[in-house]
Task: structure prediction
Amino acid sequence: MAADPHPLAGETSPYLRQFATNPIHWLPWNEAVFKAARQRDLPVMLSIGYSTSHWSHVLNRESYSNPDIGDYINTHFVPVKIDRDEHPGLVAYFRAFLESTEGRTGWPMHVWLTPEGLPYAGASYMPPSEEWGRPGILNVLEQHVTAWQRSPETVRLRADRAFSTFQSFLAPFPLPAELDSDLLDNARATLRAAFDTDHGGFTDVPGRLHPERLRLLLAAGATDADRAHVRLTLDRILHSGLLDPLDGGLFRFSVDEDWQLPYFVKTLADQARGGELLLDAYQVFQDDAYATAFRRLAGFVADQLGCRTGGHHTALDGENRWASSPDQPAEGLHYLWTTEEIDRLLTGPDAAVARAYFRLAEDGNLPSDHLAGDHLDGKNLLRPHPDLAGLATTLDLAPDRLSAALDRIRPALLNHRTTRPGLRRDPTVLTAANAAWLAVLARAARELDADTFLPPARELAHHLTQRHFDPATGELARLARSGIPSGQGGLHDFAALIHALIRLHDATGEDRWIVISKQLQELQDTQYHDPDHGGWFSARPDRPGARLRVKAFHEEAGPSAQALAAANLLQFERIQPDPDRAARARRALLLIQSEIEPRPEEHPHALLVLQAARPR
Result:
């Protein structure tokens, strides 16, 4: 008799399908989960991640593929998997809950809930055994099982108290009367104190580009020191391992402070954030290096993330299966080289140029104190030389001959790299991420090159407004897979698309984009706006788990939907003033200010929005 199919086998999410061969009987998130939990009187073990999360891959191989661990989880919990891209409002709630109760979050994120659906504990990555001061996964699970078996009512009481305490944090409080003109200056002062003057970036988040912080340092009121630090950071990035010198794509972040060892994932959202920063830098400094970097980054998005059914894919994973170890995925190998490989691919003179220009070493050029795994030993990451004139002198080449050699070398290496084992691509077309890229294209068309960037901007706008948005029903899809839209868009999807369409209107003067953006704004306010206290919730009240919703302000992975939504109202006021909309915008801005005031430097995009609202 054939075994029953895994509960995740029919899911369209690439993240959920990664776990469809587990011995753990993961269920997708729906109301049936809690019916099963109440019938079995067991807690729910919720695991949240995304398809390109390295530690999700690791945890799956180490623990979730283990039959003994699978049996233990199936016996004592109702296990549930959530793709964070499918339920952003719900994930925003759990993230905020864990930050307030556990003090930290991470990916993959784990939450334990009572059968009634209230969270009471959480964790991120759990190693197979105690490591780095973290308890092993079985130790964590056994603690939860023991607590539940001894007294489920005690656990329920703890969940009720935790829920009530967290809800009290969310309770509305009096808003300030006026916008604080000192908030931006205080945040900039805090960021200046965190400047890494040796490597660029910031000492509190080493290896993180953090585009919104750098954009804040370039905004009106910036000092010469602010602008100089942005230049230092960007110049280090342009000649580091963080920006791929072959295809132009931007990696997520670096694991070291000197930008030499990337976390080998490229996401559409990060290309949009990096693109905004490069356009800001070009606008401020008028340096062609930033415009060139932007063009190459845009080429990466079109070539590597473009989807044949329209829009752009979410991300390229950093893991692939190498010929020498087909059963063991290895992070980063797709992008790494040995000197012997370079010598085989290129003719003698070009090989010497490539070795020098990309700063290759016989024993590898990766920072040894950050290496994780023998597969990286002796490997090189391509890192462009920062001084072409000096390099030409060292190689005894005329500058034009050096440039000609590089023009041969780059495509030769890129062509060879395409023959390597393919990287896993998340085929999801996310509305919010695509809207963010549309906003970048529309801006580039207006500020850099209309002939190059306006056609793809229009094409993407048509796709999002015709395939992801149904004006007849008022529904905006959260995502599409294989060209089929699905999921109900959240606040971030609405706000990002409205923002992008306003920008496209500014670039083209075409009123149709404003007409659609106003329609979307009305729907957003109807579904998400809080008429009593201002701002917008991250989820609709008619969704499963509706009582688990927050107003999200965090900016770890980019602009918050709350700040985007407020900025959109300001833009509408610029185009067509309206007293009601102005009042709604003001309340939203005061709410944002009150929420970010304790740590304004952690909300740089919100500060940019508040700055735009300052009286001129």
